[in-house]
Amino acid sequence: MNRLLLPFLFLTFATQAQNILRVNNIPGVNAPFSTIADAVAAASAGDIILVEGSPFAYAAGISITKKLILQGPGYFLNENSSVQASKHPALTSTITLAVGSEGSVISGFTFSNIIEVKTSNIIISNNRFSGSTGILVSNTTVCSNLLVQGNYFEQGVNAALYNNPTSLVFTNVVVTNNYISGKIMWQAPTFGTIKNNIISHQSTVSNYDIANNIFVTASSVFSSTTNATIRNNLFVATTVPEADGTNLLGVTLSSLFLGLAGNTPDTQWKLKVGSPAIGAGEGGIDCGIYSGVTPYKISGVGAGKPTITTISLPANVPQNGTLNVKVSAKVN
């Protein structure tokens, strides 16, 4: 079993895992694993699978039945040029977190298709979802504790977060600090919080505390809000029957954010000077993804995540000479 030990890059995971399994599918790169599936099969419960960026997509269709931490390099690495020395993301799709994977974390990837959640105690953070769907919850037993944090969803009018109508109750679902260009469609009974997000399309939610979000849809915002509490949000829409007096309606979109000019796909959502979202959240915090307890991190590179900042190679090496490579890295 091939394992790469890099404890200095993962100090925050020291109590959770002992081994790091390195994956790289670029031809000619001497990595212990070239597929995520092979690394998952070789890993023991609690291990970290470090998936390096690549110009080639990693194979999809992976089912995880043990506690693992899957870590990619982040996204928008060309746009946010100071984040990683290598500009390639780790692109993959269709990972299923099945029974047995309780305690697993998936972070730093670009997904062209779904992550499916079938069990409790899962963290999905700091990923980019660029396909037609995002996260599907399809538990067949009562489950709890799903954290969806700091992700960038690009689903348009499709469902970014949704569940099967036949799914059973899922409690303590926390959706926080995500950019969500897509719908939240919780059709089965779910209970939790939706806070400090930017949400672009109509949503169906039940039994949620909904606060500190910015809803940038000009038309109908909710198709259903059964037993939901909606407070301290900003709405571009002028009419939101479900919203109480703590919410601010009819906000002009151009008054909210810095915008794309001179910024990147995710930094454009920072609040501009004088934004009505400043101080409009519960307790006087700002609304939106860059505020709250766990502010959004550009490119999905958050605290405790490894960053290779520079790679220095000589222009040429004499025959039979020594290749001196200088790599600078840090843990954020």
- CATH-assigned fold name: Pectate Lyase C-like
How would you sum up the global shape? globular
Beta-strand fraction estimate: 25-35%
Report, as a whole number of angstroms, the end-to-end distance: 30 Å
Class by alpha and beta content = mainly beta
Order of helices and strands: EHEEEEEEEEEEEEEEEEEEEEEEEEE
Explain what you see.
The protein is 2% helix and 33% strand. By secondary structure, the protein is an all-beta fold. It has one domain (7-331): Pectate Lyase C-like (3 Solenoid), CATH 2.160.20. Strands 3, 5, 6, 8, 9, 11, 12, 14, 16, 18, 21 and 24 form a twelve-stranded parallel β-sheet that branches. Strands 1-2-4-7-10-13-15-17-20-23 form a ten-stranded parallel β-sheet, with helices on one face. The longest helix has 7 residues, at 36-42. The protein is globular, with a radius of gyration of 21 Å.
In a few lines, what is going on in this structure?
Helix content is 2%, strand content 33%. The protein has 332 residues and is mostly beta strands. The two termini are 30 Å apart.
Question: Which key phrases capture this entry?
Answer:
disordered C terminus; Pectate Lyase C-like; 12-stranded parallel beta sheet; mainly beta
Write the layout of secondary structure elements.
Blueprint: E1 20-23, H1 36-42, E2 48-51, E3 62-64, E4 69-71, E5 91-92, E6 95-97, E7 105-107, E8 110-111, E9 115-117, E10 122-125, E11 128-129, E12 135-137, E13 143-149, E14 152-163, E15 170-176, E16 179-185, E17 190-195, E18 198-199, E19 203-206, E20 208-211, E21 214-215, E22 222-226, E23 229-231, E24 234-235, E25 306-312, E26 326-331
